[in-house]
Specification:
Elements: E1 2-4, E2 7-9, E3 12-14, E4 20-24, H1 35-40, E5 46-49, H2 70-83, E6 88-92, H3 94-105, E7 112-116, H4 121-126, H5 130-148, H6 156-163, H7 167-170, H8 173-181, H9 183-195, H10 200-203, E8 210-215, H11 220-232, E9 236-241, H12 248-251, H13 253-269
Parallel strand pairs: 4-5, 4-6, 6-7, 7-8, 8-9
Antiparallel strand pairs: 1-2, 3-5
Helix pairs in contact: 2-3
């Protein structure tokens, strides 16, 4: 745990190895979401996990009057200061978007980035992909309205958007309950994502090896925005995992771990002649 002046921040550290991997979970999750991926690494790295604002033990510090992504960037700043040295940064979903936002705003550079299906409506907007952007808005507008109207399981609209119809109902009861309880924080996540507008020039500032990982079964709006991100990054690469959807860190943990480890290893070695 980090005792930050603006509120507590989740921090858990395990293992040792050639370098540090910092895992940032997405919405509806805590650092525990990475357990299967980290387990597949078999202790070969020092690993650090956290939680974003409003999840786990990380205190919420946003409000409707202050939705800036800088609130999340401050959390990641605190985590990386505690790490105490260069690290490889891995983010899933909204955690991937926060990792990108942090890299855009900091002169301190991670050793590498891996972002897994970051939701990026502003990328679609900047690229003029209005039809796909409209799919994001249609879902999130209906979702937020349903939640504000008292629909207890409004979060199923988000989960099924990413994972396909029936994904929410297929979740274990304990996970569904956590998801419902965390809906308010996720609403802030969506409002924050829409508030954070950026374009190709912003991504050009991320001058580190960056792997963008998407699922072959992912939503078309996510697939296209991730493709654009990989193209706008100076050292970007795009990897598509066949048979996986947005929740691949749970369903394809060993493969995700392999890709993270290979990318981190290559970045640690640096460019080859």
């Amino acid at each position: 745990m980090i005792d930050d002046p603006r509120g507590a921040i989740d921090y858990d550290e395990h293992g040792s190895g050639p370098a540090t991997l910092v895992f940032v979970p997405g919405s509806f999750a805590t650092g525990a979401a990475w357990r299967a991926v980290i387990g597949s690494l078999q202790g070969r790295w020092r690993t650090v996990t956290t939680s974003l604002l409003g999840y786990g033990r990380t205190a919420e510090r946003r409000s409707l009057q202050n939705l800036s992504i800088d609130n999340e960037v401050e959390v990641l700043d605190a985590v990386l200061r505690r790490v105490g040295g260069p690290a490889h940064l891995i983010g899933h979903s909204f955690g991937g978007w926060v990792a990108l936002a942090w890299a855009m705003r900091n002169t301190q550079r991670p050793l590498s980035l891996t972002v897994i299906e970051p939701p990026a409506p502003s990328v679609l907007e900047a690229a003029g992909e209005h039809e796909l952007l409209g799919r994001f808005h249609a879902m999130s507008d209906a979702y937020i309205a349903a939640w504000r109207g008292g629909e207890t399981d409004a979060a199923r609209r988000v989960i099924d958007f990413y994972g396909g119809d029936g994904c929410f109902d297929a979740m274990p009861p304990r996970v569904r309950e956590f998801t419902v309880q965390a809906t308010g924080a996720n609403v802030y996540d969506w409002l924050t994502a829409y508030d954070d507008r950026c374009d190709a020039a912003a991504f050009a500032r991320i001058a580190v090896p960056t792997q963008v990982l998407r699922g072959g079964l992912g939503h078309p709006a996510v697939q296209r925005s991730n493709e654009l991100i990989s193209q706008w990054l100076p050292q970007g690469s795009l990897v598509t995992m066949p048979g996986a959807n947005h929740f691949m860190i749970a369903t394809h943990a060993a493969e995700v771990a392999r890709l993270v480890e290979a990318h981190s290893d290559a970045a640690s070695r640096g460019p080859t002649a």
